[in-house]
Amino acid sequence: MKSYTYANPRFNAPQSKYFRDIQGFIEENQNSSTYCLSNYKIDLVYSNPIIPMDVAPGLPIMYTNVTEYIGTATNNVGKTVYNYGEPYSPSGDAINDIPHYYHAFHYDKGNFTSQLIQKDVFDSTNKKIFSEFNYYNTYFTNTYTTGIKLTHDIIYNTLPFKGIHASVNGPDFCCQCVAPSMTCQLGNLCSASAIEYRNSIAAIDTKAIQEAILLESSVRTTYDRLNPNKFVTDSIHYVYNQHNLKIKETTTINSRGENLLTQYKYPYDFSSSQPYSSMLTKHILSPVIEQTLSNTTLNKQLQKTQTSYKDWGNNIIEPEIVKAQMDAASPLENRIRYLSYDSKANPLTVKKTSATR
């Protein structure tokens, strides 16, 4: 049995600014000997928020600390503690302006993918036996401007009524000219009013954001169960293929200081031949066609696995032969051969080297 505890919650509590918008207008009395202005406003209240209140797109609430017990919190044979990164939260403190200035999906980066920052494994005596630290980076970032959102707050600071007294020569103390001249020069009061009016208009670009936040490196430490001062540490670095965002290379530095390089190749890397070009057309991008493990410190290949795909007809493209190779001087040898598939692409007949069907 496993049980879980959760800590450090992240959520956006309901606030009036997410559900409220103020509109109004200014009325001026020009036909009376006593000039006056009146501001009329109304609060518009909505049942749904003006912008999403998720802590991240598709994530209304999250916990950045989760503990998994093998048993219960008080009676277990071990536990694993997970710590996750803080989500990017534009609907929280990141927004400095009034929410209704923004488009509902202004900062939408797609559904949030959690980022495991740290993982610690403990035994039944609460002794740490394994730890992992992960570091992430943002790749293939592009921001596209899709339009502009104009918001005009009609209620804004105005001048005293005398400053906009209408007359045949234009508003007194504001526009200084003599009729019928079509060119007037703004006075100080009118300039101030124009600035306030202009500042009541918010123009914000709406965006479409493309990016991939991927694991860049990990440090994994395994501790001696009898002596926690003894441990083995591996450091792993990842390089990604921009065509499918899959891992292209991993470099591991082991406790002996040796570099182990694992390289992955996908249908895109064999796009000049069939059936791989057809796989790209059908958006079959993720299968690993070739995987090679080498010790670059010793300049030695340790292992290679190659999977050859075949177009079996009926819109089925699946593996035909799996080959393996140890060192670079050895030939690639057939290890598994697929002989037939059913209509749902499930293997029907498989043959292993030196084995019966």
Describe it.
This is RHS repeat-associated core domain-containing protein. The protein is built from 2 helices and 18 strands. By secondary structure, the protein is mostly beta strands. A hairpin with a 2-residue loop joins β15 (300-313) and β16 (316-325). It is extended and about 90 Å long. The relative contact order is 0.08. The model is unreliable at 91-95 and 158-183 (pLDDT under 50).
Quickly count the domains.
Answer: 3
Give the radius of gyration: 33 Å
Distance between the termini: 40 Å
Helix content: under 10%
Total helix count? 2
Strand order in the largest sheet: 1-4-5-6-7-10-11-12-13-14-15-16-17-18
Q: Show unreliable segments.
A: 91-95, 158-183
Shape: extended
Mean pLDDT: 81
Sheet of most strands:
14 strands, antiparallel
Secondary-structure class: mainly beta
Task: Give the topology string: H per helix, E per strand.
Answer: EEEEEEEEEHEEEEHEEEEE
How many beta-strand segments? 18
Task: Please indicate the percent range of residues in DSSP E strands (runs of 2 or more).
Answer: over 45%
Protein name: RHS repeat-associated core domain-containing protein
